Amino acid sequence: MSRPAASHSALLTLVILILIWAYSWVVMKQVLQYAGPFQFAALRFTGGAVVLFVVLLIKRQSLRPTPFKLTLMVGLCQTTAFQALSQWALVSGDAGHTSLLAYTMPFWAVLLAWILLSERPDRPQRIGLILAAVGLLCVLEPWQGLGGLFSAFLAIIGGISWALGVVFTKRMFQLHSPSTLAFTAWQMLLGALVLCAIALAVPAPAVDWTPQFIMGLAYSVLPATSLGWFLWAVVVQRLPTAVASLSSLGVPVTAVLLGWVVLHERPGGMELVGIVFIASGLLAVSGFGQRKPSLDRR
Questions:
Q1: Given this model, what pLDDT does residue 7 score?
Q2: Other C-beta atoms within 10 Å of 153: how many?
Q3: What is the C-alpha separation between 163 and 194, in angstroms, rounded?
Q4: Model confidence band, residue 296 (pLDDT cutoffs 50, 70, 90)
Q5: Are 283 and 107 in contact, with CB atoms under 8 Å apart?
Q6: Which of 32, 169, 184, 207 is surrounded by the most beta carbons within 10 Å?
Q7: 228-238 and 180-201 helices cross at what angle (nearest 10)?
Q8: Pairwise CA distance, residues 214 & 229, whole Å
Q9: Cα gap 71→186, rounded to integer Å
Q10: Concatenated DSSP letters for 181-220?
Q11: Cβ neighbours for 229, distance < 8 A, ≥ 6 positions apart
């Protein structure tokens, strides 16, 4: 496949991934009327881990665990904390609003990489941090009172947890360079086991196994979790990192629009202003639009 054709294919893959992950927020909001947030998260990611291990078997790749300490840290941050907090936030928060705050992950990742990896942000990234911070204030609207702030707080902490998982993932590949598929499967399994323990420890009504819940769970396990991570690997492989990172911008914006259409969760004026500021800030943080050094031309 030629380079232009590969790029077009990857861009199409990116669009599909954005739609899959954005709609998953609508699905998650809907299925929470049939199961507790921790129960659903445990079922989703246990199922996702099983699917990934089946894929490893089909591809005849090694099932050997990846380095335990960093794999566990990523599983706890990226799978356990992010997913548990996001599901909890959805109980009382709108799907679009919650996804918007959770997907501020790149914003927090820049700060954490600065603190933990000594990766000092450049000028565009510092501008991006300021813009995203203003956007968060517009979305939260603290001047309107404290209503709904608990859900927003959970979503933001979830985004910070995901960002910490990104930092640990980067450290993993710097030190060990494991198989991407095996690493994803093992961190998801470890994180899912902790989610199962939380689901068992936190009292909740029994799961209502209605056809609607089963369909929502199937969507969350197969397209949103297993296929979604595969498509993400394709995007990262074929597109520049800066372009691939824009998927984290398309997901919450699309989720807000889908929440408006499907769940009738109409965003307010200040929330729309906040979307513009956050998107602008994350664009700056990603480095989109910056000139790259000219490469060797052949």
A1: 61
A2: 15
A3: 19
A4: very low
A5: no
A6: 184
A7: 150
A8: 21
A9: 7
A10: HHHHHHHHHHHHHHHHHHHHHS--PPP---HHHHHHHHHI
A11: 52, 184
